[in-house]
Amino acid sequence: EKMESSVRFKEAAMATGTVAALIAWAIRHRRTHSWEKTLERVSHGVVVIRVASVMAFDMHDAGFSLATGFVVDRQLGIIMTNRHVVTTGPVTADAVLLNKEEIELVPLYADPVHDFGFFSYNPSQVKFMQLQQIPLAPAEARVGLDVRVVGNDAGEKISILSGTLARLDRAAPNYGSHTYNDFNTFYYSCASNTSGGSSGSPVINCRGEAIALNAGAATKAASSYYLPLERPARALKLLRAALNSGSADTFRGARAVVKRGTL
Length: 263
What we know:
The protein is of the alpha+beta class. The protein has helices at about 1-40, 85, 230-245, 255, and strands spanning about 45-55, 65-75, 80, 90-95, 100-110, 115-120, 145-150, 160-170, 185-190, 200-205, 210-215, 225-230. The chain has 4 helices and 12 strands; from the N terminus they run H-E-E-E-H-E-E-E-E-E-E-E-E-E-H-H.
C-alpha cells in the first residue's frame, strides 16, 4: 500500500507539473499572439516625419531631420510627435506612411513648455491604405509594465523596441545648455535603447494604447525617456473641440485654444 500511494503521489505530481507547464505555455502564447496583432495594427498608424527647418527661436539649429509621429485623430488628420520635431520656427514637413505614400504636414501646435506637439494633414490625401488611430491612455502607465516603442529608430522605418517601465518619477532629462530642455514635469524611464529618429514614437501597451511619448535617450546607456501623456491628452481634447467647431483660423489660434493651466 505504501508503494502504491508513493506511485500515485508521483503520478499526481507529474500531472500537476504538466498542467502547470501547459498553463504557462498557453499564457506565453496568448501574450505573444496578442503582441503580434497589436503591433500589426499599430504600425498602420505610425509615420516617418521628414522636417526641413530654419533656426528656431529657442536655439533649434537649422537643418533636415527624420523623426516619428503617430495618428491620434484619423478624421481630423492630427499626428502627435515631439515639440523639438515640430519646432517653434517655420518648417517644411511631410510624412511617409507604411505603404510609402507621402502626405504633406502642417504644424498645428507646439507646446511652449513640454516636449510634445501636433502636425495636421489632409485625410483625403491618403489614397491607398487605411490609417489606424492610436488611442491615448496615460492612466495605464505603471512600474513593471511591458511596453513596445514603435518608431523609426536611427531612421530605420518601423523599428520595434521592447522594454519595461522602471520609473514614473524621473526628472526631465537635461540635453545641454544651448538647446531646448523640458521642465516642470516628471518623465518615465525605461531601458529600451532608443536613438535618433525615434523622437515622437508612441510607447504602447499590449492593447495598442499609447501610454507615453518617446522623447529622448542617454548617449552612453540604454536608458530612454518618455513624456507622460496627461498634458498631451488635454491639449488634443481642446484642439479637437476647436477644429470640430468649424471656427475660422483655427490653426493660427492653436496656442490660444490650449490655455495654460496648472497641469
